[in-house]
């Protein structure tokens, strides 16, 4: 069989039936050397191999999203495409409500922490035709993101902006008079490098167990999932980041229809909701995202004085 299943993805997610490896290899022949038969007799790759994951991403972005160039520097976060585009599909539902998901350049979004991969703006533009502002605190990440944008001729649709103050999120990025349909963010999950390393080790052990193998901890293996400081951890972890984002959003209530973010840890929802109640939002939504056995959520909020 040529496909591997990906249960629980959004109905519009073109990857919900798995990867068509023959078609992907036809689009991007470099992928062929990484594809093998998995323990269940289906074609797959070694997801603990960063080169294999990067090759898969390139093939997906070319074959499914018509992106001619995509690359990231060594050691940076290599995102899973199906999960990333799922966020965008759920966001389209939120923006469309009972109507069809909105398309076109009139829809403008802000991606907080776009990273070196710039994945949300790329997928959002190619799937829905949306325009983006892509922000990040690290200049090297923005340089990589800008190269991807420029190499695909998307400069008019994706504006990369540097956040000079790592303690700020919207301030300095949202300009006076600007309007956004929504903001989105995949915040750093961990509170320290040690915690992030332990999380990577768990992922690697789980991958090895699924292949009937035993994972051996090595210095190199810690790097397989990639991710720099600001991509994986920040002081106080995910909850501290959420609290800062929510508090700061109140100052830009009239410029964004919806504020949204992923929340990886379920125990962070209640304290985040408490902060939302303190700043007087008019509506809060929790949108579950199911990806195999993993469940994450989108937390969304808006204010009464939201833009029309």
Keyword list:
308 residues; alpha/beta; Rossmann fold; 2 domains; seven-stranded mixed β-sheet; two-stranded antiparallel ribbon; 34% helix; 17% strand; globular; disordered N terminus; EC 2.1.1.181; cytoplasm; 23S rRNA (adenine(1618)-N(6))-methyltransferase activity; S-adenosyl-L-methionine; METTL16/RlmF
> How many domains in all?
2
H/I helix tally = 9
CATH topology of the largest domain: Rossmann fold
Helix share of residues?
25-40%
Over all CA atoms, what is the radius of gyration?
19 Å
Distance between the termini: 49 Å
What's the CATH H-level superfamily name of the largest domain? Vaccinia Virus protein VP39
Which CATH-level-2 architecture of the largest domain? 3-Layer(aba) Sandwich
**Proportion of β residues?**
15-25%
What can be said about the biggest beta sheet?
7 strands, mixed
Decide which structural class fits the backbone: alpha/beta
User: Average pLDDT, to the nearest integer?
Assistant: 86
Give the neighbour order of strands across the main sheet.
5-4-3-6-7-9-8
- Low-pLDDT ranges: 1-5, 195-200, 204-211, 213-225
Please write the string of helix (H) and strand (E) elements. Answer: HEEHHEHEHEEHHHEHEE
CATH C-level class of the largest domain = Alpha Beta
Query: Number of DSSP strands?
Result: 9
Broad shape: globular
């Amino acid at each position: 069989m040529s496909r591997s299943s990906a249960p629980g993805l959004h109905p519009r997610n073109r990857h919900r039936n798995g990867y068509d490896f023959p078609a992907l290899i036809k689009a991007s022949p470099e992928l062929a050397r990484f594809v093998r038969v998995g323990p269940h007799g289906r074609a797959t790759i070694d997801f603990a191999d960063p080169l294999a994951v990067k090759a898969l991403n390139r093939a997906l972005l070319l074959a499914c999203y018509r992106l001619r160039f995509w690359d990231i520097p060594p050691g940076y976060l290599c995102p899973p495409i199906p999960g990333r585009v799922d966020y965008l599909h759920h966001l389209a539902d939120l923006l469309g409500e009972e109507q069809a998901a909105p398309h076109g350049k009139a829809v403008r979004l802000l991606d907080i922490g776009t990273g070196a991969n710039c994945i949300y703006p790329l997928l959002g533009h190619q799937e829905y035709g949306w325009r983006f502002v892509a922000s990040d605190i690290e200049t090297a990440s923005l340089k990589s993101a800008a190269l991807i944008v420029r190499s695909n001729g998307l400069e008019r649709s994706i504006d990369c902006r540097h956040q000079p103050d790592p303690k700020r999120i919207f301030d300095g990025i949202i300009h006076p008079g600007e309007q956004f349909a929504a903001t989105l963010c995949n915040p750093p999950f961990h509170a320290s490098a040690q915690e992030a390393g332990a999380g990577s080790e768990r992922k690697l052990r789980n991958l090895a167990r699924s292949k009937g193998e035993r994972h051996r901890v090595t210095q190199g293996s810690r790097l397989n999932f990639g991710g720099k400081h600001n991509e994986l951890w920040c002081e106080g972890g995910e909850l501290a980041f959420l609290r800062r984002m929510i508090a700061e959003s109140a100052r830009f209530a009239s410029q964004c229809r919806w504020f949204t973010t992923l929340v990886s840890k379920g125990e962070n929802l209640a304290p985040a909701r408490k902060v939302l109640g303190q700043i007087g939002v008019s509506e809060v939504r929790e949108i579950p995202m199911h990806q195999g056995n993993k469940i994450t959520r989108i937390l969304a909020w808006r204010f009464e004085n939201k833009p029309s």
